[in-house]
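Reading is simple: each integer encodes one residue's backbone shape. The lines below illustrate:
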Amino acid sequence: MGRLLFRVRAILGVIGFALLLYLGKPRIDTLLNSLTLIIPGLLLRFWTAGYIGPESRRRQITASRIVVDGPYRYFRHPLYLGNFALVAGFIVALHPPVLLGLGILAGFLLIYGLISRAETEFLNQSGLEPVATNFNSHYALLEWQTWVLVALGFVFTLLKLLFFRT
């Protein structure tokens, strides 16, 4: 199940964001407060990408090494922790009904819990050894796609705030 969810994680994220955007009632204060989660989430993903590289962008669970440096020294799945901060940030920004916000967070934890378990099983069976690596700015710059998507989400939220107040 985790491998399937890994392949469709982006689609599930778009569906979740669309629900939040449609049902949310953003305000200027919620939009500004969301930055306290969104900015650290983006920075954590940038830092993590500098160590893991392009493997994190594939549609299948793969690995050529087990990274143990940088954020991996502190967290087992730092990309997912960054994603959680982004999701929580957009829940704050869009200010949806409480049950929807909690449901999205619970769904995220369930989905990424299953993905994390599938990744751990894959790595345990891979025979790969932990490798010390250095931060690679070229890898980190691959995160531009996430930054663009977050900026677009922020723009859609701002447009809803400005033109679709309820």
